[in-house]
Prior knowledge:
By secondary structure, chain A is mostly helical. Chain A has helices at 2-28, 33-39, 46-55, 62-74, 88-123, 126-141, 144-158, 171-205, 208-215, 220-258, 263-272, 276-304, 306-314, and strands at 80-81, 86-87. Chain B is elongated. The chains are: A mainly alpha, B mainly alpha. Chains A and B meet through helix 1, helix 7, helix 10, helix 11 and helix 12 of A and helix 5, helix 9, helix 11 and helix 12 of B.
Amino acid sequence: MLRYLGRQLLSMVILLLLSSVLIYGSLYLAPGSADAVLFGNHTVTPAVRHAVEAQYHLNQPFYVQYWDWLSGALQGNLGTSIAFRTPVSQRVAAAAPVTIYLVIYASILITIAGVGLGVASALGGRRLDATIMAVTNVGTSVPTFVAAILLLEFFSLKLGWFPSLGAGSGFFSRIQHLTLPAVALALWAAAYLTRVTRTSMRDELRGEHVATARARGLRNSLVIRRHVFRNALLPIVTVSGLQVAGLIAGTIIVEQAFGLNGLGQLLLTSVEQKDYATVQAVALILVGAFVVVNTLVDIAYTFLDPRIRLGLREA
Amino acid sequence: MSTLEAGDLKSARTRLLVAPKLMRRLHRRLGTTGMAAAGFVLLVAIAAVLAPLVAPYRPNTEDFLAVNATPSGAHLLGTDELGRDMLSRLIWGARTSLLGPAIVVGVATGIAVPLAAISAWFGGTVDLVISRVLDLIFAFPGLLLAILVVALYGPGLLPCAIALAIAYMPLIARVVRSGLMRERNKAYVSALDVQGVSAFAACARHLVPNVSSIIWAQVTVSFGYALVDLAALSFLGLNIQPPTADWGVMVNNETALLDGHPLQVLYPCLVIVLCVTSIAYIGNRLAGDEQGARR
């Protein structure tokens, strides 16, 4: 088990390192990157150019610059935004809360709606099942940005139930502001999780151990809770974890649609302004979060299923 | 003369007979709903190709006398804030909206299938190395990769499509590889080997054609995902740029929503959803058949 954990963590670290090389390297190669932003159309004397290059370490070889950047990033120093001349970490810290709230809010919605509807669909009557399946069909065929626009139009502009722009301040105002974005973000994943939960529950319901438990006269609720749901949990946890990892890219779209100043919006504006230090930092954070969540899901999977745990020990 | 006519008639008749046969085979694979879905996608594709002929207006013809017009005889779906005909923009928009996914899927499959074949044929270390590299790429979200590439090369269809192709390639390669692995262990492969058929010829002429149904299912499913991702990138302002007509660009029009002309945004939304649903249904049908056959 420990060896498995070690291997999993090692591959995560390798993946993170390679992603960081890719992120840093690709923008390092960008045509006319820092110079153009720094000097614009001004002609500068070689001495000034040299001094500025030294200030931003542009005169060092690639691996030195990369190492400076990475070791800085690990200590929370994400470099200096050349366009704004402010520390990138400041801008990231200002943008991160909105994105974090959004992802947590959407994850809660996905789990509650996905598992709830999936269980209801598996246990309920034929009509309920058909209704829920029809809803999930719609849910999985509406792309996130379309869902965002539709929710904005109907619930914010037509009905006026929710504010259309901004993230709000204070806990309750924030919840009100982030409800539509979180629903847009959660819709696809919740519909998918509903289907996985339903299939998994149905597979377990057909199991012989359930028939045995029923034959022994156990209460139905106990059978469902202890013998069906608990066994059905494995694919549910895996899928919901992977969906949460997928949300990280989705936030970029939702933040743009609802005008939220989160990490995704910061990434997009930085791309537009060719503010490479900020692009690198935000991309590293988003990819890092994605990789870490995926690894955690892999580890959780083995913890949940003793068969996998034992099988690995023998191997 | 008369013999010629008879020959013509015969070939015409066989041609007529071939078409229903093909339709029947398609019907068996896709079902009635699937046939309807395929018909819809085909219709959109034909409209895209024939856009100059079928669209009533050019996509960027502005008519300041009919700004934000409601649907009428002159403009079947109304016009936008510059008086451009919505129906024409939807038809012209189908071009970029379908061309992009075609590039993504073409490039991704073009890299994935040879890689899968090499992986499955040689096995061992080669397979291990290729699989590890694919896992690495797979761990990088496609949308983020596209944003990085745009940061490098500026916005446009090609950078976005190439980035998504790289991101989609591992999944296609993985599925095709597992199909080829099963083929690899069959007796006919050793027979080919004994006959002295080269590895390349064996893969190109026998193994890969034998898993073509798996490849087609993957191509279809990926096409649907690529359509969504590219439209989302257009929506973010990273792919097709306005004023070019593109479905994703047309959805990114919040002024129309705020000014009370939601239809201008809802039409492209509807077209995207219909296309994606149809393609996903066909893809699932094709993939499901494959799984059914395996069991």
